[in-house]
Amino acid sequence: MRYITALRKDSGAAVAHITECLILNGDDGKTMKRTPKSIAELIVDSKIAYCVGTPTGSVQVEAVHVAGRPHHIRTAPNDTTEDNLLKLPRY
User: Fold this and answer.
1) What DSSP letter does each residue of 14-46 carry, written as one string?
2) CB within 8 A of 29, min separation 6: which ones?
3) Which letter does DSSP use for residue 89 in this model?
4) Considering only 1-5, 10-14, 15-19, which range has the smallest mean pLDDT?
5) CA distances from 28 to 2, 11, 47, 70, 81 (A)
6) Do residues 40 and 4 make contact, with C-beta atoms less than 8 angstroms apart?
7) Contacts 24+ apart (CB under 8 A), 35-42
């Protein structure tokens, strides 16, 4: 399992978008940086699981495709907003 632990946003745009995510590899403890597009491609093509961890547990990250746009990522819908990607710290 890979955990998204922090993110970087493009603050210059009218609507800020996530440009990069800091990932913790749960298998070996190493960290890496990935774009949301590359994470989405890994989820779809390689079936690599990503999640966002919180003090109360974790939630799966999904790859979403909207026609005419590149894949993007989001947390699976649930009963809280506390585990959403945009709640993660910035780096």
Assistant:
1) SS-EEEEEEEEETTT--EEEE-HHHHHHHHHHH
2) none
3) P
4) 10-14
5) 10, 32, 18, 30, 29
6) no
7) 36/72, 36/73, 37/70, 37/71, 37/72, 39/4, 39/63, 39/73, 40/64, 40/65, 40/70, 40/71, 40/72, 40/73, 41/71
- pLDDT confidence band for 83 (50 / 70 / 90): confident
Residue with tokens 């946003």: 9
Structure tokens at 69: 């746009």
In tens, the pLDDT along 15-57 reads 778 999 999 998 899 999 999 999 999 999 999 999 998 666 7
Is the CB of residue 1 less than 8 Å from the CB of residue 82? no
Q: How far apart are CA 31 and CA 19, in angstroms?
A: 17
Neighbours of 17 (CB within 10 A): 10
Task: Supply the pTM of this predicted model.
Answer: 0.87
